[in-house]
Fold this protein.
Amino acid sequence: MTELPMDLRGRVAHGDKRGRVLGFPTANLNARASLAYGVYASQTRIAGTEKVWSSVTSYGTRPTFDGVDQRIETHILDFQGDIYGREIEVKLLAFIRPELRFESVDALIAAMQGDIEAARAINASGK
Ligand SMILES: Cc1cc2nc3c(=O)[nH]c(=O)nc-3n(C[C@H](O)[C@H](O)[C@H](O)COP(=O)(O)O)c2cc1C
């Protein structure tokens, strides 16, 4: 079982840019983790800045899109900006659900909306 909280640190790399199309842009982290595939409530800090952002982090292979490589992707809540190439620190707080293969993109989007609400609630309860 994965020990939480867990701190991850890495540089934001380019993904497939599908996240923007789905409506949930993600920062892809070029880090490795020993983690169960799934979705985690998290907090993210952009190195060199003070603010800690509520976030939601997905770890896995994106089976809905027949992905194969493992990715750590963080969607920072209520954040708009370009952080490609920046160092970020991600603290995983709690496991939300396992990664799933969805039958449709709409089903994935609905699940992501639920994940964001769960991450918001977990972040709020920890403050
Ligand atoms: C909160 C969250 C939950 C996700 N859950 C799943 C999932 O259950 N199954 C899946 O195949 N992909 C999941 N993903 C990954 C998305 O498929 C991925 O973010 C999207 O394909 C964009 O990838 P890109 O950054 O490489 O463009 C999740 C992503 C986020 C941010």
